[in-house]
Amino acid sequence: MAAQKPTKKTNASAEELKAYYRDMLLIRRFEEKAGQLYGMGLIGGFCHLYIGQEAVVVGLEASAKEGDSRITTYRDHGHMLACGMNPDGVMAELTGREGGYSRGKGGSMHMFSKEKKFYGGHGIVGANVPLGAGIAFADKYKGNDNVT
């Protein structure tokens, strides 16, 4: 007996699929530019790119709802862009300019946006876990069904 092939149907409309593709393309192009700037010495510290993982974060954001929080590790540029943070502000942060989300002080791994409920990338692997647990506990304590 032959194995049954998985279905490839989706509930997403053609317009939604195009929007997902545009989001993935934005992240890819942004990261390519960030890689160039890093190579030119215009981004200080480390710069962990999100190239090749664009679909992961776009899918995550497609399933997120208003009120859900985000917290990541050091490879966080794609998350910032996918949750709607302004690419100009993200790039300003990467290049150490005042217009960045952390006023140019956080760099690649330490951005934050309370408005977007993006609680940062973290340079220390695992440091985000207790912070994420705290955010999730706060949501549970408040009685909402938000996801962190």
UniProtKB/TrEMBL annotation:
<dbReference type="InterPro" id="IPR050642">
    <property type="entry name" value="PDH_E1_Alpha_Subunit"/>
</dbReference>
<dbReference type="Pfam" id="PF00676">
    <property type="entry name" value="E1_dh"/>
</dbReference>
<dbReference type="GO" id="GO:0006086">
    <property type="term" value="P:pyruvate decarboxylation to acetyl-CoA"/>
</dbReference>
<keyword id="KW-0786">Thiamine pyrophosphate</keyword>
<dbReference type="InterPro" id="IPR029061">
    <property type="entry name" value="THDP-binding"/>
</dbReference>
<feature type="domain" description="Dehydrogenase E1 component">
    <location>
        <begin position="23"/>
        <end position="148"/>
    </location>
</feature>
<protein>
    <recommendedName>
        <fullName>Dehydrogenase E1 component domain-containing protein</fullName>
    </recommendedName>
</protein>
<dbReference type="InterPro" id="IPR001017">
    <property type="entry name" value="DH_E1"/>
</dbReference>
<keyword id="KW-0560">Oxidoreductase</keyword>
<dbReference type="GO" id="GO:0004739">
    <property type="term" value="F:pyruvate dehydrogenase (acetyl-transferring) activity"/>
</dbReference>
